[in-house]
Amino acid sequence: MLLKLSLTGIKGRLRDYIVLFSGLVVASGIFYMFEAIATNKNFLENNSLVSSAVIIFHLGTVLLSIITFVYIVYANSFLMTMRQKDYAMFMMLGAKGRKIAQLIFIETFVVGVSATVVGIVLGIGLSSVVQQLLINQLAIKITHFTAISSSATVFTLLFFTAIFLLAAIVNAMTIVKKPILSLLKASATPLPANRKPLTLVLEVIAGIIFLAIGYFMMTQVMKLAFLALIVALITIILGTYFMFHSILIFVLDLLKRRDRIALKNLNNFTLAQLSFRIQDYTRILSMVAMLFALALGAITVGLGFHNEIMKMTEATTSYDLLLNNGQNFDASELQSIKPTIDVAYQQKEDANTIYYDREQFDQTPLLVKEFGEGRTIKKVQYTGERLAKDVTASDQLRSLELPDQRTKNHQFVSSEEFAALPGETTQLRLITVADFAKDKDVLKDLANENFRKNPTLDKEMGRMEQKSLVYELYNALFSGFEFMGFFLGIAFLTMLASCLMFKILSGAKSDIQRYSMLEKIGTRRKLLIQSIQKEIGILFLVPGLLGVTHVLFGLQMFKALLSEPYSNLWVPFLIFFVLYFIYYILTIWIYTGIVMKQKN
């Protein structure tokens, strides 16, 4: 009977539960996906390149676990607020507190576990998609990967079941302990909105100061390190709170005093609505702003790491291909690429010395990339004369040689002297192609062939001189950050938008009478809908703008990791705002359906 009553209650609040359900499905799906990749032992053991990004996925799981817990607690409290009247009516009809507690427990638990099961199915699909993305992004052959992971399934079920079990117990105990009269009047009890003008002004000043300190500290992370992070975190949280607790209220009061704005259409009513409930929204708006910054920041930084792959590769290597003993490679092996630079420096060696033809370096200087001031990179040309005199320059050449050659002295002699030297002539061959991205696979095959033809080369050490292998290394690492940032950003967005939606919808019942009265006195329905759009728009827009501001200053902290943290910002911002706007439209649709009766 209780199960049937619970399912009836869920059906009666189906739109509200669908919002919660969708958020939980996405959260559990992404959670499963992270675990499916990070706990697949056969996959990791047989794909050493991918295993370098495992810690990234575990970190994503920890962050997602924390925010999921906060989201579930918040979302369930909103749903319980909307169901309080129903539970009070059951109590008035004679239902015992124990039965009400069981009813609440079943509703919470059924929704949570159902969402988790659907989320795992979604996660299996996401894992398959991410597998293909990893294959395409990393450009490698991935083996022993399966989207269906028993360990990830069990861990996801246990984690979400534990959270919903705790949430169900807390919800049941909270509702049962409240007096019936409090439950009946919970949604109709107004909160005090008026404060002393002096207190409001002082809070406005404090909010501005806190935000200014926080933003300044973000720009000083390179100098002050951990101290700047701690101070920035504390002051930005405080500044965000005061932004909604005082600054927004102060701005609304100023707008209400401007007759040109307040007296236009229903603006005065809309501003009054916002002023009346804004204090009750302070905590949720503050949380949404911070989560917005985290979500947008995760996507922005994730895509920023993607942009770093080629930049780091270019900074590490000067040539696209290095061939030791290049004379062992014939033209047929290189026919698929069209080099723009193909230089072969001739070598002769004895027990203690390796000889080079100085005039070859004069004709085609050795190219080396060096770091300049800040993160700038410059190309330096080393002629034979400079290599002969400059030990540092000579060491740059030494890094391209075979291991047994690096211990020998360098001698740069004339062409005549080089020709007169005894011994076999070998080649140090350096190649650059017109389009690295196009020829990357061929260059990788040639680089591996170079290791096969020169057994003394250590592949782990020597890969840093082969551009295709350097690219592969950075791609494996940064792609993990990219995927984690993208999926965490989507999960955070789903949760923050759902939380804000719940808070707005939880007050919809008390607004029915206000909109009904306005319609009865002749207010056009179009103006009422516009008022709803403006009110909800401000509640979505303000935390969004503050979150964007947090991100714009917060990217300063990543200058040590990203060469251009502000590059192509429009891409993540566009993705994020499209999804955020969809939630805004959905909230308006549900809210309007509650407060506005449909015309017959």
From TrEMBL:
Membrane spanning residue stretches: 14-34, 54-79, 100-124, 154-176, 197-218, 224-255, 284-305, 483-505, 536-558, 570-591
Coiled-coil stretches: none
Pfam families: FtsX
Superkingdom of the source species: Bacteria
Chief localization: membrane
Compartments, record wording: Cell membrane
Limits of the ABC3 transporter permease C-terminal domain: 62-179
Matches recorded under InterPro entries: ABC-4_Integral_Memb_Prot, ABC3_permease_C, ABC_permease_BceB-typ
UniProt topology in membrane: Multi-pass membrane protein
Keyword field: Cell membrane, Membrane, Transmembrane, Transmembrane helix, Transport
Protein family: Belongs to the ABC-4 integral membrane protein family.
Name of the featured protein: ABC transporter permease
Source species: Enterococcus dongliensis
